[in-house]
Amino acid sequence: MASAFAFLLIFFNLLFMESCKAVDRNRLSFNESIGRGESLVSLNQRFELGFFSPASTNNKSYLGIWYKNYPDIVAWVANRESPLTDSAGTLTIYRDGNLVLLNSSNSIIWSSNISLSSAQLQSSSVVHLLDSGNLVLTQNRSSVPEGSYVWQSFDYPGDTLLPGMKIGWDWTTGKARKLTSWVDTTDPSPGNFVYKMDLLGLPQVVLREGSEKKFRTGVWNGIRLSGLYRSRPTNPLFNYKFTNSTKEINFFYEFTANQTISRLVLNQSGILQRYAIRGGTSEWSLIYETPSDTCDPYAKCGPNGLCKATEDLSCECFHGFIPKSESEWNILDRTNGCIRRKPLNCLKGEGDGFLWINNVKLPDLLAQKFWFNGSMSLKECEQMCFGNCSCTAYANSDITGKGSGCLIWYGDLIDIKTLSNTEGSEQGMYIRLAASELKNGKKRLLVIISVVSAASVMLFVGLLAWCRLRTLKKRRERNNEDIDLPLYDLSTLASATNHFSDTSIIATGGFGPVYKGKLPSGQEIAVKRLSKDSGQGTEEFKNEIILISKLQHRNLVRILGWCLEGGEKLLVYEYMPNESLDKLIFDWKRTTLKWDNRFEIAIGIAKGLVYLHQDSRLRIIHRDLKASNVLLDSELRPKISDFGIARIFGGDQNEAKTKIVIGTYGYMSPEYIIDGKFSAKSDVYSYGVLLLEIVSGLKNTKYRMTEQYHSLLSHAWLLWNEGRTLEIVDRCLEDSYIKSEVQRCIQISLLCVQRSPKDRPTMSSVVSMLENKDVAIPEPKKPGFFIEQVQAETVTELTSGNQLTATTIDAR
Ligand SMILES: *[C@@H]1O[C@H](CO)[C@@H](O)[C@H](O)[C@H]1NC(C)=O
Ligand SMILES: *[C@@H]1O[C@H](CO)[C@@H](O)[C@H](O)[C@H]1NC(C)=O
Ligand SMILES: *[C@@H]1O[C@H](CO)[C@@H](O)[C@H](O)[C@H]1NC(C)=O
Ligand SMILES: *[C@@H]1O[C@H](CO)[C@@H](O)[C@H](O)[C@H]1NC(C)=O
Ligand SMILES: *[C@@H]1O[C@H](CO)[C@@H](O)[C@H](O)[C@H]1NC(C)=O
Ligand SMILES: *[C@@H]1O[C@H](CO)[C@@H](O)[C@H](O)[C@H]1NC(C)=O
Ligand SMILES: *[C@@H]1O[C@H](CO)[C@@H](O)[C@H](O)[C@H]1NC(C)=O
Ligand SMILES: *[C@@H]1O[C@H](CO)[C@@H](O)[C@H](O)[C@H]1NC(C)=O
Ligand SMILES: *[C@@H]1O[C@H](CO)[C@@H](O)[C@H](O)[C@H]1NC(C)=O
Ligand SMILES: *[C@@H]1O[C@H](CO)[C@@H](O)[C@H](O)[C@H]1NC(C)=O
C-alpha cells in the first residue's frame, strides 16, 4: 500500500517536474523523490546532488554530485554506464529500500542494489547528502552516525577521490574501491585508466591503462608505500593512512588542515592530479601530478635498471650489471635494461654475496617471481635467497622498527627508482652478485653509461658514487645505522678550522664550541665540536645526525656531514653568515633589524616548526627552541638548529614524559618543568616566548621592568590587560612598524604561552594567524609562570623523586 502511494507521488512529481523549483534539502525519505531541476544540497552547502548533462551534442544525462560552489566539478556519478536518454529521470527510494534512478517509463536505470531484509526497515530508508560529498543510505530517521550506513557513494569512487574515500578492497562485497577515468570530459563512462590496489604479495596501488601498468606506488613497507613520497606536495595537507582488517584493506588520506578543500582526480589521459583550494582563496590549484618525475613511468629503465630522477640521464645499471644492448642504451632506449656482467656462482658464502642498495622503491612483485614471509628475520631471508639459484635480491618486507619479514625476488628486478634522502633512507634491498663483483665494488662502483661521455662528467659522477659507497660501507660497519651523510676526516676538519684555533670559534654552546671553517673547495662551514665531557653523549650525537639528515626545510639548518674519530664528535653544518638570532635581537646590532625582517624571521621559525611537528615524515619535538638556536643566513632567513635533545614521536603519540628535564629556563613550558611532560605544545610555548623576544628585543629571563613582575611574559600580559600592548615593542623600532601586525604578534605570543597546553594553538594555526590578517585570533588566557621568578639561563635536571636540581650552565 505504501509503495503504491509512493509511486503515485513519483508520478505526480514527473508530471510537474519542469515547473518544480529547486528545493534546498539534504535528505530524501521513503516516499519522496527528486526529478530533473531538483537537487539535494548538503547541510553546509558544500555539495549538491542532481541531474546534469555533460555534452550538449546528445541528450544523455546523469545523476551526479558536484561542489555547490563549483558546479562544473563533478565529483561522483551514479549511472556512469547507463545514462538517461530522455529529458526525464527520477531519484527515489524503491520499495526494496534501495536508492534508485528511474527513467521516464519508470524502469530502473541505476540502483544502490543492496539487499535489505524486512519490509519495516525498507520503508525507513533515508538518503542523506553529507558535507563530505558522501551520499549515504541509512535506516535511521533521527541521525546518521558514521558506520550506520547500509550503502554509501564513497564505497564506489568514480574518477575522483574525495577526502574520506578509500582505495582498496571491501571484503564484505568483494569489490575493489578504485578510481576509473572518464572516457572524456563529456562522457563519464569508465575510461581506460584504472588506479587500483594490487594484493599480490604485499599491497600497492597500480595505475593501469587497460592491462598495461603505467605507474605503481611501490609495496606497503609497514610505514608507507615504498615509492610514493615523491608525489607528496612539499607542504602536505594530509597524512597517508593504511588500514587492514577482516572487513577491508585500504589506503586513504587524512587531512591535517581542515580549511583545505581538496580532491584527487584520475584524468582522462591517465594522470593523477591533486587539486586544492587553500584556506582563504577560492581558486582550485594543482598541487601535484603523478606520474610526474622521469622515473615514475613503469619499468622506465628496463630489467635491472635503476632510475635516478635527480640526474638528467636517469637510467643506470646496478653495480655488476651492464646494458643488455649497448647500442640501444646509447640512443636512450633503456627498455631492454641490464644484464649481469658475471654470472652468479650459486655457491653459498664463497661464490656470491650481496650488495646493499639504499633508498630505493622496491622492485615490482610479479606472479611467481617473488616470495614472501612476514615472520622471517633478515638473516633467515638471506639464507633463503642463498638457497635458490634464481634468487636475485631480498629485503625486509616491513621496515618498522628494526625491520622484519622477508621479501625475495627471482629473476629480473623491475621498476626500481632511487628516492632522495628525505624520502626514506630506511628503505633498501640486498642485490645478489658474484663475489668477485663485490670485491671490485669499492673502486668500480657503478657503470654509468652516458651519451654525453665527457670525461669530466664521468669523473664527477664516479666520485659521487665512490663517496656514496664509502659512506654506505661505513654505515654498514656500524650495524646498519641509519646515517646516510658524508663522513669527514678529522684531519680535513682540523685544517679547515685552523686546528680548532680559538680565533675560529664563532659560538659556544652548552655542548661545546662551534668553529667557522673553510674546506679546500672554498666552501664555508660551521663545525660543532662536542666537548668530551659535555652532556651530549654518543647517543645524543647520533640522535642529532639521524634526525637532521632526514629533515629538509628552508627554515632548518642543513647538516653537511659528521665525524666520529679519536674520541672527537664533530658535526658539519652549512655556515650562516649572520650567526644566531640572540646576537641580533639582544644586542645593539638589533637597530639594523627592521620590523619587516623580524616579522619574516618569526614566520620562518614558525614554518620550520610546522615542518617538524607535522609536515616532515617524522614528528619531531625540538624541546630546546630559543633565540640562540635560530641561525640566520645571508638574507636573514631563519634556520632552526641544535637537535641534540629533540624527540621523534611515532604513530599516535602526542605527548611524552621524561625524568630528565633538559632545556633552557625561560623557554620551557610549565608542564615540562613541573611534570617532565613535553609535546608539540611545549615547543609552541617556547615559540611564544621567542616571538615576544623578537618583538621586544628583550630576553625573557633577563628581564626586569618593575620589581613586581619578573618576566617578560608577565609584563606583556599586564600591558595586554591594560590595553597598552605596544609599550613592550622594541624602542629600536621607533615608529617604523605596522601597529596592527605587531599587535597581532603579541596576541599570538600570549596565546602560545598560555598555561594549559590544550589552549595553545598548533604551529600551523600560528602560521596562518601570522600570515593572514583575516584570521581571527582568540583572546589569550593568563600565561604559564605568571609571577614566577626566573634566574639566569640554566640547564636543569629533574632527578627521580621530585627534586629540581638546577645547574647554571649559562650558555652565552
Ligand atoms: C510519507 O510522507 C508523509 C508526508 O510527506 C509523511 O508524513 C509520512 O510519514 C511518509 N511516510 C513514510 C512511510 O515515510
Ligand atoms: C535532444 O532532445 C530534444 C527534445 O527532447 C530533441 O529535439 C533533440 O533532437 C535531441 N538531441 C539529440 C542529439 O538527440
Ligand atoms: C527506460 O529504460 C528501459 C530499460 O532500460 C527501456 O526499455 C526504456 O525504453 C526506457 N524508457 C525511456 C523513455 O527511455
Ligand atoms: C544488483 O546486484 C546483482 C548481484 O549482486 C546483479 O546481478 C544485478 O545486475 C545488480 N543490479 C543492478 C541494477 O545493478
Ligand atoms: C538511530 O540513531 C540514534 C542516535 O544515534 C540511536 O540512538 C538509535 O538507536 C538509532 N536507531 C536505529 C533504528 O538504528
Ligand atoms: C592484513 O591482515 C591479514 C589478516 O590479519 C594478514 O594476513 C595480512 O598479512 C595483512 N596484510 C598486511 C599488508 O599487513
Ligand atoms: C578537523 O575537523 C574534524 C571534524 O570537524 C575534527 O574532528 C578535527 O579535529 C579537525 N582537525 C583539525 C586538525 O583541526
Ligand atoms: C591530464 O593531465 C595532463 C597533465 O596535466 C594533461 O597534459 C592532459 O591534457 C590532461 N588530460 C585531459 C583530458 O585533460
Ligand atoms: C615463515 O617463516 C617462519 C619463521 O622462519 C616459519 O616458521 C614459517 O613456517 C614460514 N612460513 C612459510 C609459509 O614458509
Ligand atoms: C627456486 O625458486 C623458483 C622460483 O620460485 C622455483 O621455481 C624453484 O623451484 C626454486 N628452486 C629450488 C631449488 O627451490
Ends distance: 87 Å
**Approximately what portion of the residues adopt beta-strand conformation?**
25-35%
Helix content: 10-25%
CATH topology of the largest domain: Transferase(Phosphotransferase), domain 1
Give the overall form. globular
> Rounded to an integer, what's the Rg over CA atoms?
31 Å
Broad structural category: alpha+beta
| CATH classification, class level of the largest domain | Mainly Alpha
- Physical arrangement of strands within the biggest beta sheet: 29-35-32-33-31
Q: What is the name of the CATH architecture of the largest domain?
A: Orthogonal Bundle
Separate helix tally: 16
Domain module count: 6
Low-confidence parts? 1-23, 230-235, 441-481, 787-812
The CATH homologous superfamily of the largest domain is called Transferase(Phosphotransferase) domain 1
Average pLDDT for all residues: 80
Distinct small-molecule ligands in the complex:
2-acetamido-2-deoxy-beta-D-glucopyranose
Largest sheet: 5 strands, antiparallel
Number of strands: 48
Oligomer status: single chain
Which tags fit this structure?
16 helices, disordered N terminus, Hepatocyte Growth Factor, binds 2-acetamido-2-deoxy-beta-D-glucopyranose, Agglutinin, subunit A, 5-stranded antiparallel beta sheet, transmembrane, 812 residues, disordered C terminus, globular, alpha+beta
